[in-house]
């Protein structure tokens, strides 16, 4: 069960906690992301799996979650003799930050609306009292 907002605000958080907070990413996802950030060039799933000491299929699932959340990008590399493979690299941090800021603004607006609805529903002076039949 997710922590309440007051519990989250009382916890010490690091910036990597945003990956979990905004996108529900797991510890392995954060590890894979860190590997890609530290790499000097794009990596294959096999290389990432080796760095995080996991099976290829496990690393692949983590890479897919990172792709879906926009934290990394995929590029196709073609072999001269035919065929291809994919490599992965981190998305520009500014793009990630902009998207998280947009999500936060949307969330803030939605919470403000819900708070207003709460006040209207439970404030005796504003609440609509159902008519008796």
Keywords for this entry:
single chain, 133 residues, mainly alpha, Arc Repressor Mutant, subunit A, 2 domains, two-stranded antiparallel ribbon, elongated
Could you walk me through the main structural features you see in this protein, from its secondary elements to its overall organization?
- The chain is mainly α and 133 residues long.
- It has two domains: 5-91, Arc Repressor Mutant, subunit A; 92-126.
- The protein has helices spanning 5-10, 17-23, 27-38, 45-52, 56-69, 93-122, and strands at 72-78, 84-90.
- The chain has a two-stranded antiparallel ribbon.
- β1 and β2 form a beta hairpin.
- The radius of gyration is 22 Å and the shape is elongated.
- 13% of the residues are buried.
Number of strands: 2
CATH homolog superfamily of the largest domain: Winged helix-like DNA-binding domain superfamily/Winged helix DNA-binding domain
Major beta-sheet overview: 2 strands, antiparallel
Instruction: Report the end-to-end length measured between terminal Cα atoms.
Output: 42 Å
Mean pLDDT: 84
* Radius of gyration, taken over Cα atoms and rounded to an integer in Å: 22 Å
Biggest β-sheet: strands ordered side by side in the sheet: 1-2
Helical amount: 55-70%
Count of discrete alpha- or pi-helical segments spanning 4 or more residues: 6
């Amino acid at each position: 069960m997710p922590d309440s907002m007051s519990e989250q605000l009382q916890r010490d958080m690091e910036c990597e906690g945003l990956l979990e907070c905004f996108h529900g990413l797991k510890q392995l996802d954060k590890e894979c992301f860190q590997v890609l950030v530290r790499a000097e060039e794009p990596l294959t799933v096999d290389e990432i799996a080796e760095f995080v000491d996991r099976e290829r299929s496990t690393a692949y699932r983590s890479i897919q979650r990172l792709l879906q959340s926009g934290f990394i990008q995929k590029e196709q590399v073609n072999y001269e003799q035919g065929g291809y493979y994919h490599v992965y690299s981190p998305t520009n941090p500014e793009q990630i930050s902009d998207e998280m800021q947009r999500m936060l603004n949307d969330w803030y607006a939605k919470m403000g609306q819900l708070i207003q609805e709460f006040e209207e529903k439970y404030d005796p002076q504003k609440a609509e009292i159902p008519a008796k039949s």
